[in-house]
Amino acid sequence: MLLDTATKFRTMELTIVAPCFNERPNVRPLVQKIAESLKDIEWEIVFVDDDSPDGTASEVRELAQIDRRVRCVQRIGRKGLSTAVIEGMLSSSSPFLAVIDADMQHDES
Question: How many Cα atoms within 13 Å fall on the side-chain side of residue 1?
Fold first, then answer.
């Protein structure tokens, strides 16, 4: 019976890791642009936040309550781009990974 339930859900094909620090205003626009660009792909985005004082992690968690594709890894006492990317990748079970800056500087398509 467990297998039947599991097959009802499509597995994630792509995990997008978005390292961030003080990117609260960009969280929702970035997710929207990714959703528009990846219509035919099962994807998720993992925001890896270095404990931003502007409430970035709270914004991500709020959005995650209404969009199952959004997740947050909040790092307290740890900082740095390369380690944030690695932590985000390690949190994934998708066969494909991508990295995008949360500051909207990369073309999401």
Answer: 0
